[in-house]
Design a protein that fits this description.
Metal_Hydrolase, Peptidase M19 renal dipeptidase, metallodipeptidase activity, globular, 12 helices, TIM Barrel, Pept_M19
């Protein structure tokens, strides 16, 4: 993936930045992440604003602290990365060969039930909106919710439907990763561009976090992308990690077309390690994932490989950013 640069539709780095800065660390991105990103050729990373379960009561404050942490990091490390809040900033950053960062909600808990807050987050740079994580909120149910009944039979709550409409009005693109099947259908029925930033193929591994073929086609029909998720429990199989990734990418291209497959690696092993848990990702780093580029070129050719690794996601992010 070093050849042309590449893009990742889902990274949880902001949570780590905020925690470490609260402990007194500075230049966290530069000291812990940037060298690996640059070595791997990463050029675009979608940074999720995610709030842990225990912090949901203060979700808005936590999300704002994460944005603030990134802005402080940008001032401390000029010229290597940029939070891009409009298309011009994205294009300039990519042309300079720096790392472009954009913001996405991973769950709308920071909004509570206030649609007006979405405009505020838009001004801060949020361009993608994942409705849920794997839990319930005011808008919808996540796809892994045990022992609960849905907020309403159709999937999204009335607030959730209004929220998607408001996001579309503001130009924010909805993200259906983590959303349950009825909620997915509601988003698709509202029309407009949407994506699944970090989801795999249910035809290859029957897991509720993965998408059915009909769902993959619906994302593609909207103009969106499905980003391959390297979290091993959603991938299935065994053996070579590149082979396992390639299997899902082949299916995404076959079902949705070459313009609608991307990467959303969701590399969380550093966070699992901090919690004393065993690794759960196919790749320990973006550098490891980058070693698979040659295999993708062999299978898809250089043109389609560039689409999967970079161009498809860049297209969607450009559409999600204001002029």
């Amino acid at each position: 993936m070093e050849g042309t640069g590449w893009a990742d539709a889902h990274g949880d780095v902001l949570m780590d930045l905020a925690v470490r800065r609260a402990r007194g660390e500075r230049k966290v991105l530069a000291s812990r992440y940037l060298e690996g990103y640059e070595s791997a050729g990463l050029r675009l990373l979608v940074c999720s604003l995610f709030v842990e379960d225990r912090l949901v009561p203060r979700a808005l404050q936590e999300a704002l602290l994460q944005v603030g942490a990134l802005l402080e990091e940008q001032e401390e490390t000029p010229g290597r990365f940029r939070l891009c809040r409009c298309r011009e900033e994205l294009r300039e950053t990519l042309e300079r060969g720096e790392l472009a960062l954009v913001l996405s909600l991973e769950g709308v808990e920071p909004l509570g039930r206030d649609l007006g807050l979405l405009r505020v987050l838009r001004e801060l740079g949020v361009c993608l909106m994942g409705l849920t994580w794997s839990r319930r909120n005011e808008a919808a149910d996540g796809c892994v919710v045990e022992g609960t009944s849905p907020l309403r039979p159709g999937g999204l709550s009335p607030f959730g439907l209004d929220l998607v409409r408001e996001a579309q009005r503001l130009g924010i693109v909805p993200d259906v990763s983590h959303l349950n099947d009825p909620g997915f259908e509601d988003v698709a029925a509202l029309g407009g561009l949407f994506l699944a930033s970090h989801s795999n193929c249910r035809a290859l591994l029957d897991h509720p976090r993965n998408l059915t073929d009909s769902q993959i086609r619906a994302v593609a029909a909207s103009g969106g992308v499905v980003g391959f998720n390297a979290h091993a429990p959603f991938v299935g199989g065994d053996g070579d990690p590149c082979d396992r990734m390639l299997r899902h990418l082949e299916h995404l291209v076959e079902v949705g077309g070459p313009d609608h497959a991307a990467l959303g690696l969701d590399l969380c092993d550093p966070f699992f390690a901090l919690a004393g848990e065993q690794p759960k990702d196919l790749f320990r780093s973006h550098e490891e994932a980058a070693r698979c580029r040659g295999r993708l070129v062999e299978r898809f050719g250089p043109h389609t490989t560039r689409k999967i690794l970079r161009d498809n996601l860049v297209r969607v992010v450009e559409a999600a950013l204001p002029d």
